[in-house]
Amino acid sequence: MTKADLIRLALDLPIEERLDIAQTLWDSASPPETFELTLELRDLLDTRLREAQTNPEAGITWDEMKTRLDLDSPPRL
After folding, report:
1. 41-61 exposure pattern, b = at least 16 Cβ within 10 A, e = fewer
2. CA-only gyration radius of the chain, Å
């Protein structure tokens, strides 16, 4: 079964069941209740923060990122 098949089946369900599925999916994507920042990740974040502070013009705005990601367009199935 493909993603498109699952979506078609889900859209045929009553709204209450669709909302229940959406909540279940959302909950499953949540970060764990306990999160430990590894030394490797901490170093990476520190490095990126220093780079951003040293060279702020190298970054882009959230609006520019949305345009690149095309977040304002409907999702493609």
Report:
1. eeeeeeeeeeeeeeeeeeeee
2. 19
Full DSSP string of 38-63: -HHHHHHHHHHHHHHHH-GGGS--HH
Q: What is the mean pLDDT of each run of 10 residues along the chain (77 residues)?
A: 93 96 90 86 96 91 87 63
* Close Cβ partners of 4 (under 8 Å, ≥ 6 residues apart): 77
Structure tokens belonging to residue 5: 């098949």
Q: Would you give the DSSP letter of residue 73?
A: S
DSSP 9: H
The whole model's pTM is what? Answer: 0.42
